[in-house]
UniProtKB/TrEMBL annotation:
Domain of life, per lineage: Bacteria
GO molecular function: 4-hydroxythreonine-4-phosphate dehydrogenase activity; cobalt ion binding; magnesium ion binding; NAD binding; zinc ion binding
UniProt organism field: Loktanella atrilutea
Complex formation: Homodimer.
Homology family: Belongs to the PdxA family.
NCBIfam families: pdxA, PRK05312.1
Residues that hold substrate according to the record: 134-135, 272, 281, 290
Protein name: 4-hydroxythreonine-4-phosphate dehydrogenase
Amino acid sequence: MSRAAADAPIAISCGEPAGIGPEVAAGAWRALGAEMALLWIGDPAHLPDDTPVRVVTSAAEAHGPCPDALPVLARDFGSPRRPGVVDPRHAQGVIDAIREGVALATAGRARALCTAPINKAALIDGADFAYPGHTEYLSALAGDVPVVMMLACDALRVVPATIHIPLAAVPATLTAAGLEEVLRITHAALIRDFGVAQPRIAVAGLNPHAGEDGKMGGEEIAMIAPLLDRLRGEGLALRGPLPADTMFHAGARAGYDAAVCMYHDQALIPIKTIDFAGGVNVTLGLPFVRTSPDHGTAFDIAGTGVAEATSMIAALRMARDMADARGAGGVGPSGGSIWEKART
Ligand SMILES: NC(=O)C1=CN([C@@H]2O[C@H](COP(=O)(O)OP(=O)(O)OC[C@H]3O[C@@H](n4cnc5c(N)ncnc54)[C@H](O)[C@@H]3O)[C@@H](O)[C@H]2O)C=CC1
Ligand SMILES: NCC(=O)COP(=O)(O)O
């Protein structure tokens, strides 16, 4: 893993062409093109018609801000974009753009990777994609390193301990070893990437009322509480297992830096409710920085011009701040996280 120059671009993989990815990438470039270097990887014909493009052949040509045109590593996907309508012929190009972004970030030719949303079903149908999402694919590309999904906004960071699996599979999938790995990766990333010197992590229970002393489920007593006790013995600041229904109001949020939840919706419903427009999806544990908007492909509005680029903009800013933090050895860009600053 090589470190990128401070003026190297943040690579943006195109995501699903039929979705809003090309539109929010173009919108984010309009907002940020003068303040940071960006490099979009995809078929330039899929960008909105009014997007000025500068085709480059390498990331080296995209150093420094480019406010006049969006630098593009151009790839020919073979057919036009039809908003809202998936073309299976695009699937391999979408996957390749992610892989190229990872290669650039790993080689230090890009500062970070910001991925536009993919449609998982489209990639499975069109190219036998073997992963349920970016998170698992990026882990594989990085050499099967253990990774954790985090969604973050100014008011909240959440981590689902299990991700894209059926709800019925959650109890059997949750293990002490798996949860311990999630907690350790989250703790380390809060220090390294977010400038939180002494992370405080709240941990949700699995069952209603965190099991109500075993009357409403046993996972808290059998597995979660003993694990948290052991890790507290090592000095980790952990609270829980907490009833999930009362841990996300403003007063509760002030007491922790991240909430580790037991399943996808337990984590993502609160953050997308609090700040859908500004939420960012981050993969923790990778050797390079990866962020993404919190939303999906939004086929229902693709091509209509109403897609908001706010989450993509937040994702690019967070990628830059995380790259800065890693460059500074884990101290946040201004000596502290935006959450710490917001509390003071
Ligand atoms: N990082 C990624 O690659 C992600 C991909 N997805 C994928 O996206 C597809 C669609 O998922 P959904 O659950 O429908 O969620 P979605 O986020 O695509 O859409 C949910 C609702 O929010 C609206 N919306 C989303 N982004 C918006 C924006 N930027 N501005 C204005 N309105 C916006 C949509 O119009 C829709 O009504 C699925 O295939 C899913 O797997 C979902 C989340 C993240
Ligand atoms: N629900 C979050 C989501 O689908 C994003 O997944 P990933 O593609 O970032 O792994």
